[in-house]
Each structure stands twice: as C-alpha cells, then as structure tokens.
Amino acid sequence: MKLNQQTIEQLAEHLENAELQAFEVVKITEAHPDMDWDDAYAIQAEILRRKLARGNRVVGLKAGLTSRGKMKQMGVDTPVFGWLVDYFSVPDGGEIKTSELIHPKVEPEIVFVTKRALKGPGCHIGAVLAATDFVMPGIEIIDSRYKDFKFDLKSVIADNCSSTRFVLGGQAAPVAGLDLRTLGVVLEKNGEPVAVGAGAAVLGHPAAAIAALANHLGARGEEIPAGTMILSGGVTEAVSVQAGDSVNLRIQSLGSVSTRFI
Ligand SMILES: O=C(O)C/C=C/C(=O)C(=O)O
User: Fold this and answer.
1) What 3-state DSSP class applies to 163?
2) How confident is the model at residue 149 (pLDDT cuts 50, 70, 90)?
3) For 242, what's the count of Cα atoms within 13 Å in the CB-facing half-sphere?
4) Distance, CA of 257 to CA of 109 (rounded, Å)
C-alpha cells in the first residue's frame, strides 16, 4: 500500500461526503497518482466502516464494468467490485429523488441470490450456478461522485464503484432451465427502448461476474456468504436519467422492474 491510514480515512470521508451531500469531486488519483489497488479497496472499505458505524447494513454486493459496453463507455478494461447498503434499495415501482444524486445513470442487470457460500480462488461458472438460489431482474442506479462521470479504475473502486441505488423486481427464477447467456434484456426510458442486450454481454456469461467476485474476495481471505444478493453488472452501457423519467427493465423469462425519477 502507498497511502497511510490517515490519508485513507480523509479520502473516505471526502468521497462519502460527496455521496451524501450530492456534489462532484475531482478524481482522487490527481492528488494521489501513486495510490495502488489495495489503497483503492481500503478507501472503499473505510467508507463502508463509516456507514456501518452509523447503523447502515450491507444488503448485497456488486460487480461493475463487467460488460464490453460498459468498459468501452468508461474507457477501462477490468471488472470492479463493491457493496450495497440498506438505503440504496428502492422498491419496485418506487420513486428516486434526483435531488439526492449528482448525475445518475441506470443500468440493466441480472441479479443473483446465492444459497451456498462461494469462495475463490478457482471459482468458476459451474460452481456459481450450483450455488445460485435464483436470478431476477434489477435496475442499478450509478452516480459517480467524480466530475463529468470521468474516472480511472482506482478512483472508481475507492468510490464504491459509483453505487447509489438499486431496484429489484420481476420474477425470481432458478437457473436450471435458463440459458443466462441468451436472456434478452430491454431497458426502456419513458416507454422507449434505450438499450438492448443479452446476458452474454457480461463476461460471456453473467455467472462469470459472480465467480470473479468470489475470486477477488478469496484473494483477501473472504467469501460470498450463502443468501447474498449480487448485481452482476450492467449488461449494456449506462443511460443518463433526470427528474421526470420513468425506467422499465424487461428481461426474457424474468419479467420486469421499474422506477421513476422525481
Ligand atoms: O460506470 C461506473 O460508474 C462504475 C460502475 C459500473 C457498474 O456498476 C456496472 O458496470 O455495472
């Protein structure tokens, strides 16, 4: 690690304030060009520590930048991982206040819920499918705290991968009998399709994103516990939204989920 504990705590406070008070900041790598991957995840962990100390609860995990569409959109080439806390969760059909956000975008996601723990290294698609209780549709709302939504990988990891809200809905279905690679995904904004894709856009198979998360945690001596909800990453590029927009996600065989921005 290149940063000391005091700097990690200061950067975590800075990024969390930007999230909670909805203001943009410059990429933290501008002032700390030498920070490394461990520093980035340590800042992310410190933000979570602050939230847990305030009484928030972790309700899930996420993989991000797992599809070519997203990697191309953001100019990066590696998946990233983060956590989701209770107040990020919005009920299906519920409203999201744009006044609490900076420059939100929506992403269509295939969501996994595990029934058995998954631990890397060596976790693979087969192990993920065997450990999956069900999959369902989810809309993730991301809101990078960085100016103009521009970042590098270390900055975005520290910012908990731009996480801010998510909406789950549709039908929970077991993976047996589903080919997650060919599941069609249609994201609509105000009744018009704005992004269309299929599950294979996520690392060739969305379960590969969950395996990558298990391997990432395994390298740190951690695992994905049984009963964990995980967003596997945007299938398509993210779509900007503003107050007044309604968003609906349809996933083949899994139904639909929606939200409205006010
Ligand atoms: O694009 C970002 O701001 C980083 C987060 C990405 C995702 O959440 C994703 O690709 O699903």
Assistant:
1) strand
2) very high
3) 0
4) 11
d(CA 150, CA 144): 8
CA 126–ligand 1 middle distance (angstroms): 25
Name the residue of 44, 103, 142, 153 whose CB sits within 8 Å of the most ligand 1 atoms, as the mutation to test its pocket. Answer: 142
Residue type, 166: F
Identify the H or E element spanning 30: helix 28-31
Q: Is residue 161 in contact with ligand 1, taking CB distance under 6 Å?
A: yes
Q: What is the pLDDT of residue 85?
A: 98
Q: Can you tell me which atom of ligand 1 is nearest the CA of 66?
A: 10
**pTM for the full model?**
0.97
State the pLDDT confidence band at 176, using cuts at 50, 70 and 90. Answer: very high
Question: Measured between alpha carbons, how far is 123 from 173 in angstroms, rounded to an integer?
Answer: 22
User: Of the residues 66, 80, 84, which should be mutated to test ligand 1's pocket, given the most ligand atoms within 8 Å of the CB?
Assistant: 80
What percent of the chain stands above pLDDT 90? 95
CB 143 less than 6 A from any atom of ligand 1 = no
Tell me the CA–centroid distance for residue 203 and ligand 1, in Å.
Answer: 14
Specify the amino acid at residue 182: T
How far is the C-alpha of 238 from the C-alpha of 255, rounded, in Å? Answer: 20
Q: In order of start, what are the domains of the chain with their CATH numbers?
A: 57-261 (3.90.850.10)
Measured in Å, residue 141 CA sits from the centre of ligand 1 at: 9
pLDDT 10s digits, 17-42:
999 999 999 999 999 999 999 999 99
Query: How far apart are the C-alpha atoms of 236 and 116, rounded to whole Å?
Result: 28
- Which of the four pLDDT bands, split at 50, 70 and 90, describes residue 248? very high
With contact defined as beta carbons under 8 Å apart, do 20 and 54 qualify?
no
